[in-house]
Amino acid sequence: MTEVRFYEKVEDALLKFAVILARSEGKWVFCKHRERETYEIPGGHREAGEDILQTAKRELYEETGATDFDIEPVCVYSVVRDGNEAEESFGMLYFAEIREFERKLHCEIEKIILTDGAVEHWTYPEIQPKLMEKYVKGAEGRGRILG
Fold first, then answer.
1. From CA 138, how far away is CA 9, in angstroms rounded?
2. Whether residue 17 has pLDDT greater than 60
3. 66 DSSP β-pair partners
4. Was domain 2-139 assigned CATH 3.90.79.10?
């Protein structure tokens, strides 16, 4: 079993990855990795010397080709697999509004899609739908209109 937990804040050194819920032209942005048949939210691991916002911006560009966007932090989240508290891994969830994409995709991403709602076939079905739900509930609570 995989458990997703949400936090306001944790020590920066604990943040190992950034995931970016993104929208463009009123639609959600999802990526398809070349080696998988499923879709995912853009994101990836922090590199040495990066702050977590740099990670988010780099991953958003690498995985979607986004060149013009606004990005904001949503919250910290963690993943605990099979109740193993010692291996709780932490990441930062961001939201981005993308205004412009490059035509060419980079690295391992085969394509991106824009959809009105969530995808059916998630790469990480125990994690990423919960991240999207967390953001949507918070956005609605702040009076932000999605759609």
1. 16
2. yes
3. 101
4. yes
